[in-house]
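Second opinion, please. Pick holes in both lines of this record:
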Amino acid sequence: MGLKASRIRVPGLAGHDDPAAAALCTRAAAGDQGAWDEVVERYAPMVWSICTRFRLSDRDLEDVAQNVWLLLVDQLGKLPEPAALAAWLAATTRRECLRVATASRGLEPLEPDARVTGEEVIMAERNAALRAALAELPASCQPLMDMLVSDPPYSYAQISTALGIPVECIGPRRARCLERIRESSALLGLADIGGNRPGGDPGA
């Protein structure tokens, strides 16, 4: 669907334990390729973001990312806290980055702020929940939300032309679609969607 979940804000997501991550780990460990693909889709942006903070070469970045996923394959079914998968991936990525950077430069690299990495873990979990919620939207909502959260966002005039929706009806329909997201099973137990318009205020 191409929706950028990170453009919709869900403030106040508490903790790093994600029951959905635990379920994915269990299914992936049992050989479910779809579950493994979802794990990679959920957390690859976080892994890559952490890698880039160490100023590694492109080749080293790719090597680290590959090593992280290979380590996860080896550890699937053995993780002490599968619900904290994002935190495990963040810690493993940072450790691999430090190892590769030290080996390639012969120097102790600058380690990124642990607080920033923690924020990335929360962002990865939040975006995963939002992607799942967006995927549950009815067909009438998906094209509209896709255009609203695109980068750059479409104007209301462009949306009206593309989807055949009167400009004055876009705001109310957007509100109804956001309400469906709030009620999504993927967001049960999470904070409500914030009041900011996805992708900013395109205007008319």
